[in-house]
Amino acid sequence: MDYNNLSAFGEVREYESMAGHVTLGVGGAARCYFRPHDLDALVASMTKIPSEIPLLVIGRGSNLLVTDAGFDGVVIDLASLQGISLDGTLLHCQAGCRMSQVAARCADAGLAGAEFMATVPGNIGGGVAMNAGAFGHQFSDILQRVALLHRDGRREAVAADALKMAYRHSVLPTGALVVGAEFELQRDDAEAIRGRIRAMRTKRGVSQPLAQPNCGSVFKNPPGDHAARLIEAAGLKGERCGQAQISPQHANFIVNLGGASSQDVLHLMTVAQRAVKLQSDIHLEPELKVVGSWCEQ
Ligand SMILES: Cc1cc2nc3c(=O)[nH]c(=O)nc-3n(C[C@H](O)[C@H](O)[C@H](O)COP(=O)(O)OP(=O)(O)OC[C@H]3O[C@@H](n4cnc5c(N)ncnc54)[C@H](O)[C@@H]3O)c2cc1C
Known about the structure:
By secondary structure, the protein is α+β, with helices and mostly antiparallel strands. It has three domains: 3-77, Uridine Diphospho-n-acetylenolpyruvylglucosamine Reductase, domain 2 (2-Layer Sandwich), CATH 3.30.43; 84-207, 2-Layer Sandwich (Uridine Diphospho-n-acetylenolpyruvylglucosamine Reductase, domain 3); 227-291, Uridine Diphospho-n-acetylenolpyruvylglucosamine Reductase, domain 1. 25% of the residues lie in helices and 26% in strands. It has helices at 39-46, 99-108, 124-130, 139-142, 190-207, 227-233, 262-280; strands at 10-17, 29-36, 55-58, 64-66, 71-77, 84-87, 90-94, 111-112, 133-134, 137-138, 143-149, 155-159, 177-184, 186-187, 240-241, 244-246, 254-256, 289-291. The strands form six sheets. It has a five-stranded antiparallel β-sheet. Strands 1-2-5-3 form a four-stranded mixed β-sheet. A hairpin with a 5-residue loop joins β11 (143-149) and β12 (155-159). The protein starts with 9 loop residues before the first strand and ends in a 6-residue tail after the last strand. Residues 23, 56-64, 78, 95, 119-123, 125-127, 129-130, 132-134, 168, 172, 177-178, 208, 210, 214-216, 289 line the site of flavin-adenine dinucleotide (FAD).
């Protein structure tokens, strides 16, 4: 494929390091990085990408790691899809809206239900794909409908139920991109909503290593337990591989001390999985989405 054909629809960069597009700051190169101008350009571009070329859609890269070998396909960054509108208690967002901005917008409008988004550093599309959540709330609580774009350029609106959302899990049709989402919220006092957001932010600042590059929770919490507790119990807080470290502050976070590789991070994940299996006979399932080949334990 001649990737320059996509430049009519947006910004194209070949052999783009993914380290600059994920919050952990590690990763190999994408054969092609593509940031469409807007939704119409994205729709038009889909038919220009042959079906055999792999696609990877990204938001803020806040739960994503591309292996050091890179990604031999097109990475689509939906950051330009920023539309947001309110219709009574219904909120419509395009996929590139930041969750924190959505939470702030809802608070200003006196609409409750999206406060948890203020503490999750991803975009709406990534939030739908991951069923992101915090403080006992998650996307599936308020999500009504999702706008999808299929690889053949077909657009479809589906009810949230169709995504079979569960803890940090959604089932999207193969190859489909989330381009928008609709949420049902409830009226409440704006200052009360802002107060809840402030309280959530304060809690986060104390418990998580937010000053260092990281990717949020590396593993899902197993039923009835916490991945962080299990990793700490296995004696791995502070464990290092190269420039990656299991955070001394929160054992389910891996931080980049500066110049870490994806391999460093994956090695620590393997070490944690093995140690927790040995110590507690529990398999830790990654929450972090790893793109590329990796032998999960
Ligand atoms: C400091 C920190 C704290 C965090 N706290 C939380 C938390 O409390 N709760 C929580 O749930 N998560 C948390 N996370 C993880 C992360 O923010 C969420 O998983 C978020 O939903 C990812 O959004 P993103 O836009 O960054 O997606 P990305 O990381 O870019 O992508 C994640 C996955 O979603 C897919 N995807 C992204 N956009 C789309 C789209 N438009 N259509 C289809 N698929 C798509 C990607 O292909 C990938 O598989 C945290 C991360 C960090 C760094």
